[in-house]
Each structure stands twice: as structure tokens, then as C-alpha cells.
Amino acid sequence: MDIVQKEVERFDKIEGFLVNMSVAGGTGSGLGSLITQQLCDSYKHSLKQIVWPFSSGEVSVQAYNTLLTLSSLYDNSDALLVVENDGIRKLSSRYAGYQRISSKNPIGFQMINKVISRQFASVILPAGHIDLEQGPTKLNRILECVAPNPQFKLLNIRSVPHTSYSSAEYEFHQWDGLVRYLRQMLASNSHIDNWSALSSRALSSMLFLRGNEIHRFNTNILNSSHGCRYGAFGDSLTVWASPRSLGESDKFASVLTNGQSLLPSLKSIVEKAWLMFSFRAFVHQYERQGMETEEFDRAFDHLELILKNYSKL
Q1: CB proximity list for 191: less than 8 A, separation 6 or greater
Q2: Nearby residues of 68 by Cβ (< 8 Å), 6 or more positions away
Q3: CA distance 74 to 132
Q4: What is the rounded CA–CA span in Å between residue 44 and residue 140?
Q5: Banded model confidence at residue 225, pLDDT cuts 50, 70, 90
Q6: Confidence label for 35 from pLDDT (cuts 50, 70 and 90)
Q7: Where are the domains of the chain?
Q8: Are strands 45-52 and 16-22 parallel, antiparallel or unpaired?
Q9: Among 159, 260, 255, 179, which residue's Cα sits nearest to residue 222?
Q10: DSSP E strand boundaries for 113-232
């Protein structure tokens, strides 16, 4: 923390911290939780970008680690931006131009990190309200828009288009079409434009449009004819834009959403952790480090409450 303090003293003003970490690892998630707790005690705002493990992960205790880490981070963060490895891997295959992933068409970490970086950049790079001039992206403004309620802190990003990198420069898109894709992806809880019949509701969203012809965007398509005001985008929607394109595409749209899209993954992790805990599987490894079973109980209660709150949206 002394190193952090020295860095902070170099600036006239600091809005908060962006912390990137995994929730399933051992040292990374545990040490990361401790550091974020100390940051929360000393500074105001923090947004955590956390990496959700693959559903078929190889770490035997990843369900425990995710349970304990998420419970801690929820208390020590303004919001948690969740990156789901399974969804990002599917999206990476689209950008790579693969119809499906196989031994002949592998997806490496370089491609996955590129996709994650572009999604994150679409949110934090300079932009402004669509009706105002462009300016630097303010962390506290983002938090005010999508995470105003301390009971709801889980965010994720959906983005379009999904054109392969090799052909992106030859394709042209319309803003109305891209936003319609995003709306359908949110409604069906899909990472790609191959949606199912599942439904998902949102509390609030921020829509980011980056590229040319911003003035041609028709804001009327955001209105919903049924349900909440903006449909899949939630009851509260803020639109930010920038004329500068992102990556190879002439237009890039992304939406930062606080809603039910993470419920299936969260529910699955809690169920796996509870099944293991009911048999006390691997619990001795945590007890050996001084952890008591009451800490597991508190973490289960905390995540059950989060599940209950989001289920009621």
C-alpha cells in the first residue's frame, strides 16, 4: 500500500481504481481480495474487472475460491465488471473467423486477451453523452449510471459487430442494426448474435457508440413498446458516443449492463460450492491456513442474497 500511496501523491486528483483480477485462482484471488479491501478503506471509488472461470475448469477448488472472493469483493467495490471465460472464448472464435473451436482451430490466450481488452477499452476510452461534446470518461460517472444501488453491483459487457478481424475493414454497418443486435443479445443473455429463447432483465445500462456517422443514429429505436422503458437495456439507459472508431470496424457498439445476465453462472458456482461443502471436500486445505467454516457460511449467505436480489428484477 505504500507503493500505491506514492503513486497517488503524484496526481492532483484521483477518481478511483480499476483492478483486474481472477476470482478462481489461489494466490491471485486471495491476495487480490486483501488489497482491494485495503484500497476500499483508504480511497473512495473502485471498479473491479474480474475474470470468471471456465465452467469446466481444472482447478478443483475454483468454486470455493470464486465464492469467497466474490463475497469479499462485493463488500469492497463500487461495482464488479465480470468477464466470463466461456462467453469470451465463443466470441473469440467469431473474431478469428472460426465456425467452431477444435484442435484444428484453437483459440489462444492472445486472442482472448485481445477481445477482453477491446471490450474494456470501448467503455473507458474518452467519450461523452451523445448530445454533448466528447470528453474524458469519468469513472464515478459510469458508476453513478450503472451501479447506483449498493445491492446490485454485477456488470458485464456485450459488443458488436462480431466480424472476423481479417474481413472487418471490408464490411460496413449501420448504427440502428448494431443496437438492435445488442438489444436481442441482452434479452436472450447471449455473448454472440446466435441467441436462444432465454430471457434476461436489466436494471440499468450504458450504451457506447464509437465510429463514424454518429449523427445518423436514431435514438427512437431505444424505446421499448412493452415492459420497462428501454426493454432489454433496463429502466435507465445512458448513451455515450465518440466519432473515433475502435479497432478494425468502422463502427463499434458496446453496452455495459447491470442485470440478470450473470445469474446462471453465479447460481452454478454456488451450487457446485455447496455440493462440495456438504461433503466437506477440500475444506481441510482452507482450515490449514486458519480459515473457519463460519467464513464459508457467511459467503454462502451473502451470495444467496445477491442471487435473490437479482432474481427479483
Answers
A1: 84, 87, 88, 90, 91, 158, 185
A2: 29, 30, 33, 295, 296, 299
A3: 33
A4: 10
A5: very low
A6: confident
A7: 1-265, 266-312
A8: parallel
A9: 179
A10: 128-129, 154-160, 202-211
Contact 260, 233 (CB under 8 A): no
Q: What mean pLDDT do residues 239-262 have?
A: 90
How far is the first Cα of the chain from the last one, in angstroms, to the nearest whole number? 38
Find, among 8, 34, 32, 9, the residue nearest to 22 by Cα.
Answer: 32
How many angstroms separate the Cα of 285 from the Cα of each of 60, 160, 279, 300? 12, 43, 14, 18
Asked whether the beta carbons of 168 and 247 are under 8 A apart, the reply is yes
Report the alpha-carbon angle 27-32-36, nearest 5: 160
At the topology level, CATH places domain 1-265 in Rossmann fold (3.40.50)
Phi, psi of 258 (to 5 degrees): -115, 105
| CB-CB contact of 202 with 259 (8 Å) | yes
Cβ–Cβ under 8 Å, residues 306 and 74: yes
Within 13 Å, how many C-alpha atoms sit on residue 305's CB side? 14
**Three cell numbers written together for 284:** 481441510
What's residue 122's pLDDT? 94
Backbone angles phi, psi at 300, to 5 degrees: -60, -45
What phi and psi values does residue 197 have, to the nearest 5 degrees? -90, 5
What per-residue confidence (pLDDT) applies to 230?
59
pLDDT of residue 196: 47
